[in-house]
Write a structure and sequence with these properties.
Number of helices of chain B: 13
CATH topology of the largest domain in chain A: Immunoglobulin-like
Radius of gyration of chain A: 24 Å
Mean pLDDT of chain A: 80
Radius of gyration of chain B: 20 Å
Number of helices of chain A: 6
Structural class of chain B: mainly alpha
Shape of chain A: extended
Low-confidence stretches of chain A: 1-18
Number of domains of chain A: 2
Largest interface: A-B, 63 and 58 residues
CATH class of the largest domain in chain A: Mainly Beta
Helix content of chain B: over 70%
Structural class of chain A: alpha+beta
Oligomer: heterodimer
Number of domains of chain B: 1
Order of helices and strands of chain A: EEEEEEEEHHHHEEEEEHH
Chain lengths: 254, 323
């Protein structure tokens, strides 16, 4: 795990919702730098609930979501044709985040109502948007389920129920492991405070995941000057081949 | 292959250190694993005169490199290992440059045609299946032919009848077609059309399958053109340099899928392996070399065939839309 370098306290208050309870959040880091030896990152999220009045009644819940950049994906299903397994049906999922983690302070369904989940797209299932499969495909639901299943296996989608620790109904903290196969982009982070399943306060921030140093340079070069990049890779290959050949000849002759 | 796969799994899990994040592939992998894979395939490359792509590309899929990146980067890595191997052969004068040039001219044309076929199939959405079927069919045919032939050759060598076999091979189409050329290094006087056609054919296949094509080129040179085995390996490596170099540039400029970091790690292992492989190869008899290669080819073929025939544990797969 990367050592957390920077502790940034973000003291911004959410703008609206119920005024007497508000979230104050801190992040161990608000950016993840992908270096050459990057192998994942642990992000600590901690915060407090600020109150103007005594704590209201009702079961309190804290939910944190982190969503990577969304991209459309093609989900293909294999079927047996002429004795071999081939990709047969394809369903396009319009937008699925490349990474999605949901952490909660209690079982998910106990602290957020279905209506709020639908409205804010909190759960993993709701975070994936699919406009609809072609008519001839039955059971299109299984395709979206496959996206979740495959990405959960890769630790790209995480449901961390009961992972948020809440102290004295005021302080909360959790940590989210981000895997090594992250894609670059803005990771949209939301913190919800709920009372009896209703969202009473929301706080949004962004974690910036980006390549730095050599990784940045090579990536940019490959996109902006592909010919130079291609020639560079060829040159490296030729030189490496020549060096190895000369080196071994030298060894053999001495 | 299954045992190898399990080994790789444990290696990945055990060595938590020396992880490297690949900038284009956007995955984190173990650097030593890549060095080891490069070395292993490099040895085979030097021994048999194959680029090793037909082995490395599936291995890269297996350790989680996206297929598009694996194919493109593998082309780049083959340039290094085949260049290293070809230099060793050039010094020992076991490269038929004239034959190489004829094969290459066909190869470049073939690679361009192959790329068009590849892109067409990509738009239809069945490119994975076709690539795998190509592997199974060609590896199967070539592997079995080489295996049977090498067995016969070994048996003949034991009963001292191999002289007859040599003279028989020098007849057929290669002598009846026009445009005859003299290939001094190979000791052949044959038509230039068959080698040119072989070049085109292998070029097409190498673009579709994302390999150098040595495993097709080597047997084609031995059995169709009748070239001596000693010259075949060097000449094959020589023309693979250019065909894969061409493919690398095409991939880098159209699909942006060449990963330099991945290529460097693979080729460090690869070039060293190729040198060791050339040494081993020069000490072994041609029939033994061919029978080993044919067993290897058949193993890879079997693995790919079972993947197609047995129901996969995950029926669904995720892909990107468009580019």
């Amino acid at each position: 795990m990367r050592v957390l370098a920077l502790i940034v306290m973000l003291l911004m208050f959410s703008k609206n919702l119920v005024a007497n309870e508000q979230i104050v959040l801190g992040l161990s880091q608000d950016e993840v730098a992908i270096t050459a030896n990057f192998d994942g990152s642990k992000i600590l999220l901690f915060g407090a609930i600020q109150r103007d009045a005594p704590q209201p009644d009702g079961k309190m819940g804290v939910i944190i979501t982190i969503a990577g950049p969304s991209k459309p994906i093609a989900v293909r299903k294999k079927e047996k044709r002429f004795g071999i397994w081939v990709n047969n049906q394809t369903v396009e999922v319009d937008a699925a985040p490349s990474f999605y983690a949901v952490a909660t302070s209690a079982p998910f369904t106990e602290i957020v109502s279905d209506v709020e989940d639908l409205r804010n797209k909190i759960s993993v299932e709701r975070a994936i948007r699919s406009v609809g499969a072609p008519m001839h495909i039955q059971d299109s639901q299984s395709f979206t389920e496959a996206v979740i299943r495959i990405r959960k296996d890769q630790k790209l989608y995480q449901l961390l129920e009961n992972e948020i620790v809440v102290d004295q109904s005021t302080l909360f903290r959790t940590s989210v492991d981000m895997p090594a196969n992250l894609t670059e982009g803005d990771y949209f982070t939301r913190i919800f405070l709920t009372r009896d399943g209703k969202i009473v306060s929301q706080f949004d921030t962004i974690i910036d995941v980006k390549k730095v140093g050599l990784e940045r340079f090579l990536f940019n070069l490959s996109r902006e000057n592909p010919l130079i990049y291609g020639l560079l890779s060829l040159a490296i290959a030729i030189i490496a081949g020549w060096v190895a050949s000369s080196f071994f000849r030298y060894i053999r002759h001495t | 292959m299954a045992a190898l796969a399990i080994d790789l799994c444990t290696i990945i899990k055990l060595s938590g250190t020396m992880q490297i994040y690949l900038p284009i592939a956007e995955v984190s992998v173990n650097a030593f694993l890549l060095l080891g894979l490069g070395g292993f395939v490099g040895i085979l490359s030097g021994m048999f005169g194959v680029g090793g792509g037909f082995l490395m590309t599936p291995l890269l899929f297996f350790i989680g490199i996206p297929p598009a990146v694996a194919v493109a980067t593998e082309a780049n890595q083959i340039v290094a290992s085949s260049f290293s191997g070809a230099l060793a052969h050039l010094r020992r004068r076991t490269v038929d440059l004239k034959m190489g040039a004829v094969l290459l001219s066909g190869g470049l044309i073939g690679a361009t045609i192959g790329l068009y076929i590849f892109n067409y199939l990509k738009s239809v959405g069945q490119v994975d299946l076709l690539v795998k079927l190509c592997y199974v069919i060609f590896l199967g045919i070539i592997g079995s032919l080489m295996f049977i032939e090498s067995l016969n050759a070994i048996r003949r060598a034991k009963s001292n009848e191999n002289v007859i076999n040599r003279t028989n091979r020098h007849k057929g189409l290669v002598h009846t077609l026009p445009l005859k050329m003299r290939f001094k290094t190979s000791g052949l006087y044959i038509s230039a059309i068959p080698p040119f056609a072989v070049g085109i054919f292998v070029g097409i296949l190498s673009a579709i399958m994302g390999v150098g094509g040595g495993f097709i080129m080597v047997p084609a040179m031995i059995y169709i053109l009748g070239m001596p085995t000693k010259v075949v390996v060097g000449t094959s490596l020589f023309q693979i340099i250019f065909v894969t170099g061409f493919a690398t540039l095409l991939h880098a400029t159209t699909n942006y899928t060449v990963d330099i970091a991945l290529a460097v790690l693979l080729l460090i292992g690869g070039v060293i392996g190729a040198q060791i492989g050339t040494q081993i190869g020069s000490k072994m008899r041609a029939e033994q070399l061919r029978i080993l290669l044919s067993v290897l080819v058949l193993l890879v073929c079997l693995k790919l065939a079972t993947d197609l025939l047995i129901q996969p544990s995950e029926l669904f797969s995720l892909g990107t839309i468009g580019n």
